Structure formats: structure tokens, C-alpha cells
């Protein structure tokens, strides 16, 4: 579900392991993948994190923090959502050589009570990295500690249930709009505009194919997507099309 390069490393990365579905991920964890040579990788456990769905590495004040987002915290039967999800955090050391299955990185609870804790995106906030978390209770902004040893700051941006959320200035008015996919694993995308009272109100909604839209691909089961601008200045989207065992690269051209 997530792969993130360890900052300052030569190809070492962290990845979710054994997350299969909301019903089969009790043994999920985060692993460390370290390149040892051509086609040779050392894989070790970093931490145990049942139902870890997304995670990220955030930097603030020169310190790297790990944020771990768990879809739920328990499970007894199929489609059991009684155990709400949670987010955990830890300082990520620069040297990860001492961690393995028997010596996991300790995690500290940041916030619990997050039903269907599904959405995660990395954003810039106040000049540092922050995490945008989406769940049934709404969208939350997680700021890492301002100084080492301080508490994480959690701010609720919206109470609108969301499966995935982003904060982007879609209309170039200098304010960040809130984009939400709903319901959980849903097919409706709504963009909310911040009004003069500081409330997000619906501005645009996409819930079915419309005449202004163009079909790029279909029947792919895309589980994750990444946007970047390549060396030629073109927008590129990488999609992990899980249902057809494919990683696809889409280049946007005029």
C-alpha cells in the first residue's frame, strides 16, 4: 500500500507488508528494504502495525518522524468495523540497522477513534511536512512536534466523511480547496471551497462520467497514484493498477 524511501539513503525504503484487505491484515507491519547488490535486497521488520494502511515520513526541524495510519485496531469477523482505526507516530532514526522482528521500533498513539482510517496524503503546512488523514469522522491535519519531545498537533479540517482527501488550490485563488472521495472506497469526488466564515462548502462534484471528462483508462483497479513533472516538463501520473497486476505510467500532453 505504501513505499517511501528513507531520507538520505541510497535506495533504502520502507514498505507496508501483509496488508491484504480490511478483513485480512491483522499481521500487517512495516518493513525495511535495503539494497545489497543487483537484484539482492535485505528485508527486515521495522515495526508491528496491525491493519496499517498508509504511512509516511515527515520532516520538521531537521527531524524525521514516522506516522503510521491503521485502518482499524481489531477484528473478529468479516466486515467487522467495531474497532476504530488510529494513527501512531515515532521519531525515525537515521540508522535503522538495529530494528528487526525481535527489536521493533516503538510506536506512540497520536489519535484513535478514526473509523475507516483510509486516506493519507503528505502536504506542506507552515513550512514543514504534515499529514492529511481522511476517515468517517472527517479530515484531520497532523503536524509533527515543533521540537523534539513535544506533542503532535491534530486539527480537524472538516467533519465530512471521506475515504481520501487532498488540500489543493484548484482555482488559483490563493486558498486551498478540500477534495474528498466518498463514501468509503467510493466513486464520488467533491471539491469544497473555503467560504468567508472558514467553512468548506461544496463547489464541484463528480459522481459519474460527464461530457467534460476524458476517459484515460478503465477496468484497472488502481490502488494508488503518484503525480510528478518529468524532465521535459510534462505531467506524469503513475498508477498501481492492482486488479490487473500492472504499474502504468500516463503522460499528459496537450
Keywords, separated by commas or semicolons:
2 domains, mainly beta, 4-stranded antiparallel β-sheet, 254 residues, single chain, 19 strands
Describe the model.
The protein has 254 residues and is mainly β. The chain folds into two domains: 211 residues, no CATH class; 35 residues. Strands 1-2-3-4 form a four-stranded antiparallel sheet, with no helix packed on it. A four-stranded antiparallel sheet has the order 5-6-7-8, with no helix packed on it. Strand 14 and strand 15 form a beta hairpin.
The tally of strands reads: 19
Q: For the terminal residues, how far apart are their CA atoms?
A: 31 Å
Radius of gyration: 19 Å
Query: Strand order within the widest sheet?
Result: 1-2-3-4
Helix content: under 10%
Tell me the structural class.
mainly beta
Topology order in helix (H) and strand (E) letters: EEEEEEEEEEEEEEEEEEE
- Domain unit count: 2
The description of the largest β-sheet is: 4 strands, antiparallel
Mean pLDDT: 94
**What percent strand?**
over 45%
Q: Can you tell me the overall shape?
A: globular
Number of helices in the DSSP assignment: 0
**Contiguous runs where pLDDT drops below 50 for at least 5 residues:** none
What's the arrangement of secondary structure elements?
Blueprint: E1 3-5, E2 13-17, E3 29-37, E4 40-48, E5 52-60, E6 63-72, E7 84-91, E8 108-114, E9 119-125, E10 128-135, E11 138-143, E12 153-158, E13 164-168, E14 177-182, E15 188-194, E16 200-206, E17 222-229, E18 235-241, E19 246-251
Antiparallel strand pairs: 1-2, 2-3, 3-4, 5-6, 6-7, 7-8, 9-10, 10-11, 11-12, 13-14, 14-15, 15-16, 17-18, 18-19
